[in-house]
Prior knowledge:
alpha/beta; Rossmann fold; 2 domains; 6-stranded mixed β-sheet; 4-stranded parallel β-sheet; 13 helices; about 45% helix
Amino acid sequence: MMISSESIQAAATRIKGKINATPLSFDPVLNVYIKWENQQKTGAFKIRGALNKILALAPWEQERGLVAVSAGNHGLGVAYAAKLVGAKATVFIPEKTAKNKEDAILNYGATVHKIAGDYRQAEIEAQNYAVKRGATWVSPYNDAQVIAGQATLGLELIDQIKPFDAEACFVPVSGGALISGIGLAFKLNGIKTRIIGLQSKNSAYFYSLYHYGTMKNIVESKSVADGLTGGVEKNSLTIPLVRSMLDDFILVDEDEIEQAVAYVWYHYQVIIEGSAAVPFAAVLNNKLPVKKPVLIITGCNIQVDYHKQICERWKDSF
């Protein structure tokens, strides 16, 4: 399924002025562009897709109430958008979701249901709840309007890098909406650059789908990149998009992610979450040598004490 250039442009128009156009910088030492999407409203890119989806709904669809599942950042985007349109939002989260993300969702006025088990379990319960209540389901990734919303990040990059000389784009992957959206924005605007997906070895669901066409043998364990954990819904729109558009998909380990979180703090004095650090983890460990990639830094919603622990642990590395 192809999402049209018109639907991506419509998303950009729809959310303009309601989100931040986030900064782009260039680091000549690492020879990388850095897209600081951690400076987005709600502290993460997810607001783009959630907001586009919810603003595109008919009033009666908003009034039925909105239901979502989230490891944190999508829930924040949905709660923010729901508040904006005056709708009721209910967000299902896995029991191990970071406390700061849960608190932030509640602060936007959403109802939170904490589910025993992992992300996939929370997703199943959330979908069942939406069906039973006749509420409107807002998927974090398996939705054309959500993907079109995330594609606006790609449009921003095209405006910011002129001429577009980035040889690759390094993107963290969970459900695949962001990397699908960026890939579509590039393709539909004639930008020829390599699209590289990144995940943690501890939750390599989409990596396995991309390389082997299955998630069957994946055993998930705890990851500092908590926003990238959880399996992908069967028949998700993002599966064929990711498999057709990506040039490569690579994994980083937990130490490499922690090191990257600390590196960004010590070199730029910027706090980023583990999920956002995977592009830096790849660059710092020379996982995929390319000239002048653009690194998508997806969010900053990490527990303050956890961030301090990580930086303390790695301070002698720099």
